[in-house]
Design a protein that fits this description.
Largest sheet: 5 strands, antiparallel
Distance between the termini: 46 Å
Order of helices and strands: EEEEEEEEEEE
Radius of gyration: 26 Å
Strand content: 35-45%
Number of domains: 2
Shape: elongated
Structural class: mainly beta
Number of helices: 0
Number of strands: 11
Length: about 150
């Protein structure tokens, strides 16, 4: 098999075609009919690999392969229901909702997220508006995911 044969290979994620690199044959005689297809995965999900020879799918085509998100990346993790100001009252719980994401922005699966490895860094800030009023609050400066 070579690049002159009527071989069509497409890799798709949903309706989007993915760029591929194709290598036909090998150096050894037993690799003569081998085709190596390479592509980069940045979006988690199911990909379909279509292989056609003379406009006919080879047996098993299209092949399906599911790729999972990478490990959680704190710099890509986002707050849901984000607001620029949060008013907290001493003694009352305030929930923050996070959506853990990987380095490519894929939403990570809940089973890959272990809250015991998640921590916040906070800093107490005092603001003095005048001599009679002092406001104290905690401001989340950054958050870290410990692995």
């Amino acid at each position: 098999m070579c690049d002159k044969d009527n071989v069509l290979i497409e890799v798709k994620k949903d309706a989007e075609k993915i760029a591929i690199v194709t290598e036909f044959g090998g150096k050894e005689p037993q690799e003569a009919n081998m085709v190596v297809v390479k592509f980069s995965v940045r979006k988690a999900g199911t990909y379909s690999i279509h292989i056609l020879v003379d406009n006919n799918h080879v047996r098993g085509s299209p092949f399906r392969k599911t790729f999972l998100p990478e490990k959680i990346d704190a710099s890509k993790t986002v707050f849901l229901k984000h607001t620029s100001t949060v008013v907290c009252v001493t003694g009352l719980e305030h929930k923050l909702y996070l959506e853990p994401r990987d380095v490519f922005g894929n939403v990570c699966r809940s089973q890959d997220f272990d809250p015991q490895y998640f921590g916040f860094c906070s800093e107490e800030v005092s603001i003095r508006k005048n001599a009679l009023l002092e406001l104290n609050f905690f401001c989340i400066k950054n958050y870290n995911l410990f692995s």
